[in-house]
Specification:
- The protein is α+β, with helices and mostly antiparallel strands.
- It folds into two domains: about 80 residues, Alpha-Beta Plaits (2-Layer Sandwich); about 90 residues, ACT domain (Alpha-Beta Plaits, 2-Layer Sandwich).
- About 35% of the residues lie in helices and about 40% in strands.
- The protein is built from six helices and eight strands, in the order E-H-E-E-H-H-E-H-E-H-E-E-H-E.
- The chain has a four-stranded antiparallel β-sheet with strand order 2-3-1-4. Strands 6-7-5-8 form a four-stranded antiparallel β-sheet.
- It is flat.
């Protein structure tokens, strides 16, 4: 039986049609597989994070040929090992929750929320933020969706109370729900 290894491939550069096809072809041609991914275009810069899997030979080929991918795609590319045991241990010790928040845009919202979560040992697994125009006034509205792992030892009542205090202070409409 062949052991599957995993690594995180990150790539960032100027956006253009075909980048996802080029990177996925590069991985596939070397015997690798994309197990999980996140990709986004932020004002013309395209960023990818891919969990790549493959046997030892495939992973070695991918690593050795990264300069070819960088040159052909004009992307900055890195490959880092992914720890299987840390991911399993972290998942078993925590519960997944979703936090959504909406507020008038103001500097420091992400920092204040992430600081609060850090103080309670809550890990942010993914976060998406955006600005949208308010319906009538057109004022910029901050919107956030955050997936987090709440340690089983963290009291949920304290998490909710602390979030409520902070969100009241910053005038944020929020919702916390188990996944």
């Amino acid at each position: 039986m062949t052991t599957v290894r995993h690594a995180i491939l990150t790539a960032i550069g100027a956006d253009r049609p075909g980048l996802v096809e080029e990177v996925s072809q590069f991985i596939f041609a070397r015997g690798g597989n994309i197990a999980d991914s996140r990709m986004v275009n932020l004002r013309g810069q395209f960023a990818m994070m891919l969990l790549v899997g493959g046997d030892e030979g495939a992973m070695s080929d991918i690593l050795n040929d990264l300069p070819k991918l960088q040159q052909s795609s004009s992307l900055h590319v890195e490959l880092r090992p992914a720890s299987e045991s840390q991911a399993r241990a972290a998942a078993s010790d925590a519960l997944p929750y979703r936090l959504t928040a909406t507020a008038m845009d103001q500097a420091g919202l992400v920092h204040r929320i992430s600081h609060l979560l850090r103080s309670l040992s809550v890990n942010i697994e993914s976060m998406e933020t955006s600005l949208a125009a308010a319906p009538i006034t057109g004022a910029p509205m901050f919107e956030m969706e955050l997936i987090m792992s709440v340690p089983r030892k963290t009291p949920l009542a304290k998490l909710r109370d602390d979030l409520e205090k902070l969100c009241d202070e910053l005038n944020i409409d929020w919702q916390l729900s188990a996944m």
